[in-house]
């Protein structure tokens, strides 16, 4: 990975290894020195990769505006840019002063609407409020913003684990938006903030997915589980951090999540209303050991603990007899099982040894631990040629060469995976086969498909244009 030149940047990489993008990584990486550019590498025939643009450093999300036929992207500090059609110039079209989100992590376009998701500081910077904003396109091409929803205050932490509001998807009919609110802890441990919010673990406003009407206005999301459920806002619960959400061509909501500093697999899920996905009691099909009162969190005794992890060094892995019990009468929905051949390395629960699922014949739920999956999308219009037509794709931020948490498991990552999903009626869930098709990205954070082209943004300040094999010469440009 490219970010290896200063102690600050190394620290940022360590942070990201244990959580998807959070409040500090992007701002620090955006200010880091210029790095020698490396080129992603196609791992399958027929894929062409070329540099499209050099955007501002710290880019998080990328979108395509079908009206202006241009690429838009945002930075975490709240700036939104529109690129020229050739990618050689850009226009700043909105800032945090316009939309009111100072920590902007989610961005999605739908026709003439722009939906933004993020957080603002509260309670003297010890707390935070999630915020969802809708922008309506104006004649000059810019947007007029209004509030869709805002949460009550809830506690930030004094650690890297405050994932906040980030992932967003719009349903195909344009009636609802789905918003991910990430966990405020690594694995359900107590996290106050220098005495504020004492005893707080996860709260009703965290580790879940909300569903909100696209025409909603001034909705208050209370920090109250009964209120959120009764008003239809709570869609799915027990989700650590689905940093990317996407609605398939079959109107099904999928997402990819980071797991904790423990060697839990990283999940892909089919999210459904009223379902619970296991966090913090289970991640990737592996139980969270902190829920057991006799657990001894010693890396010498538990190989799932990496001594380099923040959770270990910060003593977040600990004997915790007051850990809340699993909710009664709740059945957890397992992560989608990965049948390989790629991104399916795991640590065996009995022996602690690192295993390749292709050689053991097991499946994992879903990806190699600490891959940090993001940039999920589907070929919804079936523009691509076989074997990609109609399938899903996902990026990975991490690789085992530069990431200490991932290094013991695999050197591979920082790539684009082709995902072939299959519905399994006997389990009422999906399985997936995953294939590496592009490698050697340098901090990729998001992707958008435009016809036979895929645009990938890296937060170091690069956008790559990937031309895939097309099912028709008349595919969109």
Descriptive overview:
This protein has 477 residues and is mainly beta. It has 6 helices and 31 strands. The protein has a single domain (7-467), classed as 6 Propeller (Neuraminidase), CATH 2.120.10.
- Rounded to an integer in angstroms, the radius of gyration calculated over CA atoms is 21 Å
Task: Tell how many strands the DSSP assignment holds.
Answer: 31
In the CATH hierarchy, what is the class?
Mainly Beta
Report how far apart the termini are. 30 Å
CATH T-level topology: Neuraminidase
CATH homology-level superfamily: TolB, C-terminal domain
Shape descriptor reads globular
Which percent band covers the strand fraction?
35-45%
**Mean of pLDDT:** 91
> Regions with pLDDT < 50 over 5+ consecutive residues?
1-35
The main pleated sheet reads as:
6 strands, mixed
- The total count of helices amounts to 6
Q: What oligomeric arrangement do these chains adopt?
A: single chain
User: What CATH architecture label applies?
Assistant: 6 Propeller
Tally of structural domains: 1
Percent helix: under 10%
């Amino acid at each position: 990975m490219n970010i290896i030149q200063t102690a600050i940047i190394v620290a940022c990489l360590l942070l990201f290894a244990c959580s998807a993008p959070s409040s500090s990584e992007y701002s620090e990486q955006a200010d880091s020195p210029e790095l020698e550019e490396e080129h992603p590498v196609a791992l399958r025939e027929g894929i062409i990769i070329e540099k499209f643009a050099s955007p501002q450093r710290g880019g998080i999300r990328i979108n395509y505006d079908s009206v202006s036929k241009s690429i838009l992207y945002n930075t975490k500090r709240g700036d939104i840019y529109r690129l020229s059609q050739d990618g050689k110039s850009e226009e700043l079209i909105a800032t945090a002063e316009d939309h009111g989100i100072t920590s902007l992590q989610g961005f999605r376009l739908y026709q003439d609407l722009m939906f933004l998701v993020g957080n603002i500081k509260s309670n003297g910077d010890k707390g935070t409020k999630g915020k969802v904003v809708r922008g309506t396109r104006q004649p000059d091409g810019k947007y007029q913003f209004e509030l869709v929803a805002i949460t009550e205050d809830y506690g930030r932490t004094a650690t890297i684990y405050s994932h906040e509001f980030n992932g967003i998807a719009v349903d195909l009919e344009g009636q609802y938006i789905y918003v991910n609110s990430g966990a405020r802890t690594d694995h359900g441990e107590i996290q106050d903030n220098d005495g504020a919010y004492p005893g707080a673990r996860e709260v009703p406003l965290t580790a879940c997915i909300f569903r909100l009407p696209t025409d909603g206005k001034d909705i208050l999301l209370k920090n109250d589980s009964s209120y959120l459920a009764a008003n239809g806002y709570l869609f799915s619960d027990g989700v650590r951090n689905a940093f990317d959400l996407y609605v398939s061509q079959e109107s099904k909501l999928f997402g990819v999540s980071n797991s904790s500093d423990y060697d839990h697999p990283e999940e892909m899920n089919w999210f459904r209303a009223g379902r619970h996905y296991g966090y913090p009691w289970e991640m990737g099909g592996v139980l969270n050991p902190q829920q057991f009162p006799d657990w001894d969190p010693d890396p010498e005794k538990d190989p799932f603990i990496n001594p380099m992890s923040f959770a270990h060094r910060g003593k977040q892995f600990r004997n915790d007899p007051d850990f809340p019990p699993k909710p009664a009468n709740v059945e957890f929905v397992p992560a989608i099982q990965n049948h390989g051949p790629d991104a399916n390395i795991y640590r065996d629960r009995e022996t602690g040894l690192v295993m390749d699922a292709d050689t053991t014949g097991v499946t994992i739920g879903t990806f190699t631990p600490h891959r940090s999956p993001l940039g999920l999308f589907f070929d919804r219009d079936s523009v691509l040629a076989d074997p990609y037509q109609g399938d899903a794709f996902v990026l990975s931020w991490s690789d085992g060469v530069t990431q200490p948490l991932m290094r013991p498991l695999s050197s591979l990552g920082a790539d684009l995976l082709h995902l072939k999903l299959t519905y399994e009626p006997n389990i009422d869930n999906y399985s997936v086969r995953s294939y590496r098709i592009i490698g050697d990205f340098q901090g990729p954070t998001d992707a958008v498909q435009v016809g036979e082209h895929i645009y990938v943004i890296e937060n170091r300040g690069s956008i790559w244009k990937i031309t895939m094999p097309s099912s028709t010469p008349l595919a969109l440009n």
